[in-house]
Design a protein that fits this description.
With 226 residues, the chain is α/β, with parallel strands linked by helices. It has 10 helices and 6 strands; from the N terminus they run βαααβαααβαβααββα. A 6-stranded parallel sheet has the order 3-4-2-1-5-6, sandwiched between helices. Helix 7 links the parallel strand 3 and strand 4. The chain binds farnesyl diphosphate.
């Protein structure tokens, strides 16, 4: 079995998938949400401890049409409500990273109610959802916090104040949807990550495709500059 600590995924391509299959972007988001569960279950089966999913970037939040954003918020809230028992049963600890400010009240409320819940014992997976997230802002915040703690600006101290302090850097970052870029996702944490850009649109991304990526990953010698 492959020993992996952290996999991160940029789930891109919902809109195009929806247009292609239903002439409707929202349908793409709906099917994109459905596609998360098998990936989570695969991570649990393979003892991958941390899975970070890029669901909404700060730029998506600023630049997407209001109607589409409202649909995204609706699907996000529905997902969090619908999956509560699944998360409990599977011993999944759910957290969020990103900017809370500006999000609708109901979204902030459900996020903080999930953040407040007691720690899960015998945890199987830390699932982190990046929502209204910007890596550049995360880095700025970390610098500011480090300075406010009167600590030196060094790598160790900056990392202590990043959202990913507990999960560590991802070994693998996958982006579906055909674009070869990180789009303001985990820019600091990806310094030594293996990057996999796949053409498949997120709703069509399968566990089989994830397995193919992991198979490639184990053949790679990671030197970390050595
Ligand atoms: C990327 O596809 C998807 C998004 C920007 C939003 C996805 C978020 C949700 C559906 C909310 C629920 C999320 C979770 C994790 C439960 P795109 O629209 O950028 O696709 P395109 O590149 O084809 O336009």
């Amino acid at each position: 079995m492959i020993r992996l600590n952290h996999v991160a995924i940029i789930m891109d391509g919902n809109g195009r998938w929806g247009i292609k299959n239903f002439k409707n972007r929202t349908k793409g988001h709906e099917y994109g949400v459905k596609n998360i569960k098998p990936i989570i279950e695969f991570c649990i089966r393979n003892k991958i401890k941390n899975l970070t999913l890029y669901a909404l970037s700060k730029d998506n939040f600023i630049k997407r049409k209001k109607g589409e954003l409202n649909n995204i918020f609706y699907l996000f809230e529905k997902y969090l409500n619908d999956q509560k028992t699944f998360f409990e049963k599977k011993k999944i600890n759910l957290t969020f990273i990103g900017e809370k400010s500006g999000l609708p009240k109901n979204i902030k409320k459900i996020m903080s109610s999930i953040n407040k819940k007691p720690n899960v014992l015998n945890l199987n997976l830390n699932l982190c959802i990046a929502f209204n997230y910007s890596s550049k802002l995360e880095i700025i915040k970390s610098f500011k916090k480090t300075l406010s703690q009167n600590k030196a600006l060094n790598i160790k101290n900056i990392e202590q104040n990043l959202y990913t302090v507990k999960s560590n850097d991802p070994e693998i970052i996958i982006r579906t949807g055909g674009m070869n870029r990180l789009s303001d996702f985990l820019l600091w944490q990806s310094a030594y990550s293996e990057l996999y850009f796949v053409k498949t649109l997120w709703p069509s991304f399968t566990v089989r495709k994830l397995k193919d990526i992991l198979r490639k990953f184990i053949t790679i010698k990671r030197n970390f500059g050595a």
